[in-house]
Structure prediction request, 1158 residues.
Amino acid sequence: MRRIPVLDALFPRRVTEVSPGRSKTTTPRFPGSLQLRHVDAGSCNGCEVEITQVFAPVCDAGRFGIRLVASPRHADGLLVTGVVTKNMAAPLTKTLEAVPRPRVVVACGDCAVGDGVFSKGYGVAGSVSDVVPVDLEIRGCPPEPTAITEALRVLTGR
Amino acid sequence: MTGGLADLAVVDPALAERVGVSAVQVGIVLVGGPLLLGLMGKLRARAEGRVGAPITQGLADLRKLLHKEAIRAEPTSAVSAMAPVVLVGSAAVAAALTPLVSTRPVSAGGADVFLVVYLLLMGSIALALGGLDAGTAFGGMGSSRAMTIGAISEPALLVGILALAVQARTSNLPGIVKASLAHPGWLASPQRILALGALVVVVIAETGRIPVDNPSTHLELTMIHEAMVLEQAGPDLALTTAGEAMRLGLLLGLVANLFFPWGVADSGGGLAIAVGIFALAVKASALAALIALIEVSTAKLRLFRVPELLAGGFVLAIVAVTIGLVSR
Amino acid sequence: MSATAYLIGVSALCAAAVLGAILPAGQRLLGAALLSAVGCLAALAGSGEVLVSGHPFAMHSAEVLPLTGVDVSLDPLGALFVAITAIVGLAVSWYSIGYGAHPHASRTTTAVLPAFLATLLLVPAASSVATFMAAWELMALTSLLGLLGEHRRRPETRDAAQWYAVMTHIGAAAILFGLVLLGAHAGGQSFAAIAAHRRELSMPLRSAVFVITLAGFASKAGAVPLHVWLPRAHPEAPSPVSALMSGAMVNLGVYGILRVGEVLLGGGELWWWLLVASLGVTSAFFGALHAAASTDLKRLLAYSTVDNVGLVLIGVGAAGALQCDGDRLLAGLALVATLFHLANHALFKSGLFLAAGAIQHSTATRDLDRLGGLARRMPVTAVLFGIGALSISAVPGSNGFASEWLLFEGLLQGIASRSAVTQAALLAGVAALAITGGLTATAFVKAIGVGFLGQPRTQAAREAKDVAPSMLAGMGILAVACVTLGVVPGVALPVLERAAAGGLAGGAPHALRPGIGIELAAARGAIDPALVVVGLLAAFILAGSAVRFAPRPAQLRHPRRGEVWGCGRELQTARMEITATSFAEPLQRVFADVLRPDHDLEVTHASESRYFPEAISFHQRIDDAIERLVYRPVIAAVVSWGRLARRIPNGSVHRYLAFGFAALLLVLVVLR
Prediction:
């Protein structure tokens, strides 16, 4: 996985491993209300299928105040899936720029975190944290909907 | 008796009470609008087998949005800053004048139903101009669709209201409500039922619910209202969302009180006003539940079928007026 | 006193016209404009006195016109129209000072504009058939010269002038025929004599006169289907001239209908007024729809004039119908609403045309698809255009809202009337008012949004600068008048009531209570625009401060300037903006049967195979459907008859002698 040293220096990684019951995060919290804009930076859509289940009747993340929105201007942060391909690096940065602060970036899935099966592809620019600062990582290929929901609940505190 | 600027020069307790009533109405619409939206969301969720967000979610969202930063796109002008303010302001003034809780708001003589309709139009114009300000294609498309649907729903709205005004011989809102209170038999008259049908169709169109518009869509090409606010962030978005919720609350309260006026306070006094607030909550929630039921059981109409729906509403309204005139 | 002021006004305008023709270039503009402004003020003073005091004046002069002399008299109805024209003329004169610095401005415009104004002031004051027709024809002539003031070599301008000349002349012929018929049978050509003898005329004769003159006046007012000259002439005329045409000249068509129908013919039958109202309903809908579908700014404003004239005709029809039904109180209310709307339309429409002229002055285009971003480059013009646009969209607190509300009230109270046909007509009127309200709002949101907001679409729009102060002052006068009448409409109502009483056969009792807002007598309804405006301002301030002062971390306090959200796209150019054509597309699809757009699709295939297109070209045009479906066949028929008839004079002297002989025989037989 290529690292981009300048970005590393400017935006040091602040990550949290999610495990039930423990969180050492210093990320901004959004009590009771969290809107996220999903960005597919180059995923195989496996994580997207799981994210669909997060908002479906069984996991129902909506009851914690979590919602996906259409425009980054309406969002509190980004939910990024997939490796960042070369074509998506600049759009991802622009999308984060369009999010009003305070904001978070959630990297969902092994590819986004940097350990995925596609990480060494020739069209890949890097993991999400190589392009934008990541506040929350969710591992798994794909992560289960319950794991994604638990991770997002860390942000809403509910 | 018209309250007006002339009255403000003389401070008298009746005027103070009327201003208080109007302030209460604005507050109720401001808080109740998001609650009604939350109720509709909850009913939808339950119908889909989910638990869904709590009813107060809208208020929590608004509070969070107020504390975020505002972003204005580079080519925008003052219109982007003013559009959400005008939307909320026009809805607030309309709420102050409509007899939601009591038939004695400030300036009861000047509380005309056409004034309320045109105040809502003012809000729509502001929202549409806000969507055009950034010069994007999606914003312009949203404005174009919203104004077209607004233009086609105007005849149904105004002729439906005309049916009520002709029956009550006045277009003054407290006058219509008082006349309806005095004639309980009017509720079952065919012109009222048809006018109610027309106005429900118009309320769905004006507030952008399914089957006219899907408020939670992510596909820009299917958006109508959402597309106009794509550029708004933080406090601007908070005002716009609050404004749209206020318009929903106002429209539901207005339709409820025009057709089912029981519970509206006709005299002063805290007890009457409390009863009025409770009655308004019950009636508006019932109408909101009806709209949520319609939302759950139909699919969104194709954009070019919406005029047919609104034309149907217009026909209902015309038939209502004709029946009213013929049966006099 | 009022007579003197009025005469001074008219003479000053004639003098201004002469000055505009003979003075050298440097002093021409200023001299003519100042003298016109003085003339308009004098006319305003004269007509104002007639309106406020209610005392008309009458003058007769046997010198100016041979055989009949000139009769000038100003009663409250005519005085209202004179006053409206004078206010609009004042603003236009001021505007023309700066406008004359335009490279295309010509001496013709400077000379003809005051002359046009003078004739516009004469028509409402004419009180005999001869004076009326003389003033009417002079008005047509001066407006035609004004239309040709600029760009007279361009084919569109010549085409527009041709249509305008023919239609206005045919209309004038119809009016002349009707009035002469009336005068001949009533035994005198002065209006006073006609009004005195009208009971001796038979109803079929009166109906014939009404219908014939209605055709002429409706054509001048721009009612569908006689409106086709309007969207051609207004865009091509110089802006001061189009402002006067829309703001003052079309009013005189309505004035003619009122004068002939009510005052001279004494009210007449119900079907007259239902005819007028149905013309109004069609014009309102058709005009509003075409305005919403136009991409040329001035054509949009011209069709919007057709729309508003339709609303006015609905009011006139309602007033006349209610008066025939015997309900003079409600008829008076409807007529007050109509005259109020006419006055308001004159104010905001001329302001809008002047602003469109300012835009054309700065950017050399009036196509909305070539403008954009003008709000930051021409801020004052943008605000003044915005005030006019909000007034015409009937936003509460504007004068457009006050008059539309009053019109609604007139129709609503009138629906309780006796005859079922009147009820149906009034219901159609309410439906027309409703649809045009929405369509007008769409049209003007498009004009503001595409023309002023967003990014500039062309270099000309990018380099636009705001116009000269005199032009801004001219627009400002009208904007101030709009806002004043919107916030305190009650000040204008007594004057309008007096004019309406003069416009209805038999007068009308007071339907409105005095006050700063509008209140109907018998407590049937009221609005208080002043309170609404105060409430709105308070609400805006509160909402704005709630946002501004909500607690936020320090670096988030002020709005951040960011890129336009383009879905992450690298570049957002002006080519990606919404266009006026696409803004109107949903409406155009819904009303495709009425608009009948013309589609032209040309596909060039690759030489190798028909399945691979090399180039595709698509053109769309929205023509006036009535022109295409009604006028073109008629014109084609007339042209083919003309060709047939051309074969008769074939050059043979024998044939001509034979014709002469046959005609002589015919005359002798007939005169036996």
Remarks:
- Residues 5 and 45 of chain C are 6 Å apart (CA to CA).
- Chain C has 26 helices and eight strands.
- Residues 278-548+578-590 of chain C form one domain.
